[in-house]
Write a structure and sequence with these properties.
Length: 125
Amino acid sequence: MIKTKQRPIHLDLRRIRMPINAITSIGHRISGILIFLLMPVGIFLLDLSLMNSDGFATVTAVFNSVLGKAVLLLLMWALMHHLLAGLRCISIDVDFGVEKPFFLKTARIVLLVAFPIAFLLWAAL
């Protein structure tokens, strides 16, 4: 019997080098989950702000707090990354940009542009 090389017992995720497409895809999934999980909170805050002036003041105080601003920035990043990565996926589905240099370039663009756009939108609020 030929003895083969022992397989690793566990994967060392620090040693695995993820391709840029995988990072973009993982970011797309994470941003979709964040949007889904924060949607009920947003609906609750909208409902609270429309109830009366005290509710509106409470929501304003929440968004003016440091934690509220951080969550809003995270939500803006999730929206921008999900939108840009989704547009990239749709373009690949219709056979636009399926050549390797082009889709690697678009993956880098999504990763590099999503946060600055989110920051600009957040700063405009």
